[in-house]
Amino acid sequence: MEFLRPFDDSFQKYLSDESRLTGRADWLSLPRTENEILQTLSHAKDKSIPVTISGGRTGLTGGAVPNGGLLLSLENMNRILEIGHDAAQGEWFVRVEPGVTLSELFLCLEKHTPPLFYPPDPTEHSAFIGGTVASNASGARTFGYGSTRPYIRRLKVALMNGEVLDIARGRIRADNNNILTIPLPARNLSLRIPSYSLPHVKNTAGYFTSPAMDLIDLFIGSEGTLGVFTEIELRLLPKPPFIIGIMLYLPSEESALQFMRSIRIEPIVRPQALEFFDSHALDLLREKREEIGQGGVIPPIPDSARHLIYYERLYDDERMTDNILGSLAKILPDCGISLDDSWVELDEKGVARMKDLRHALPETVNSMIAGVKVSFPNITKLGTDFAVPESRLEEMMRLYHARLDESRLRYVIFGHIGDNHLHVNIIPRSEEEYALGKRIYEEFAAAAVRMGGTVAAEHGIGKLKKSLLRLMLGEHGIVEMERIKHAFDPAGLLNPGNMF
Predict the structure, then answer these.
(1) How far apart are CA 109 and CA 57, in angstroms?
(2) Distance CA 253, CA 402 (A)
(3) How far apart (Å, rounded) are the C-alpha atoms in residues 220 and 222?
(4) Domains and CATH numbers, the chain
(5) How far from 474 is each of 198, 362, 489, CA to CA, in Å?
(6) pTM above 0.85, yes or no
(7) 1: confidence class by pLDDT, cuts 50, 70, 90
């Protein structure tokens, strides 16, 4: 098997992902076809070799980091197979292999007539589509369009025993007894769906479960623990021709929350994306701009701005432009600002510059952590991924500020405020601060669960957050997940250490 070879030093890039964990492997498989994936799994099963699935290695929880055994990279499974229109469903779709990146997909769709787009728009465009499905990825536009899950029409999944599932949405559902009956080539597999309840917030923690659930949803967000995707069919939407992007420079956190409350009840201004930066985040960006100079991607930020909200609205009718801007102009004075004091863009190029500012923040935090690691190698960024119900957002934000200000730790808060999903990034400067930050991080996780939220809204569990999943689902929930895992992978060879 040419695609399967012993691991050597030239393959080091496969041993880590964006979590900065580093692992080890004995074998590397680079299959180009579904059949070569099946041969890889058969070889691993026969010799009881654990298999770690590797995609674009953009994950933040160590899911693609191997701990020995065989690493199966999907980078050569990278063809866009078909773009078509399903007349019966009245929708466009694209069929791809799992190693296609989001940027490759977006470039292809831009050239299509009519223009199409993939609404979830996960933040990291170098991510493989297979990885985004495995983690039920989301991004800024999830506020308006939802996460990956509702855009998956069909999956082909290779199982450890050599069988291939071809799952079309709507074809296999749990019955009234909560049993999924799955027709496999040589047998039927029946399993009871998990009985735990998932929080009613944006979530990617734990196997999906819901009464009368669709089989396809069990695999979405399963983090590669049940099978290997060999083909994926995504639902697409016609691309709206008009866009508004606005950076709102706000004087206080209360003014930001007032804006949130106002737009939720005003349909014409309800955006698809709504992002938040706290005062610490803006100060950090100002420092970075001063360091790199005016030629960088960070624009000047007014001194009066203590908080920032990025607002994005896509729409089909150019006549709506004045209506949207007019409605915003009426709302903003109650928030302490005017539209004239905000940065407004009405085309894709201008909006892209705004997104450069958004991306500059986590990149700046990561570079700071890299600098600290020179002196303290064990330190990592402590980044939360918690979401809570809308009614508890302000309470959660007060808790963040109270505990972190009391601790004197350096931190920034930013992220998807429309989904009540903010990232707290704690930036420790010593091992003592790192230990304190971890304790506070765990306090925040427990608080999110108490409020009916999730410990992983978009980045999944991977290898780093298993204790948090147990906190959220309890021992019984973990046992139920293990039962599902055993039904598809009895020897536990696939992605060991992820989620469990």
Answers:
(1) 24
(2) 14
(3) 6
(4) 1-238+467-492 (3.30.465.10), 242-450 (3.40.462.10)
(5) 12, 32, 22
(6) yes
(7) confident
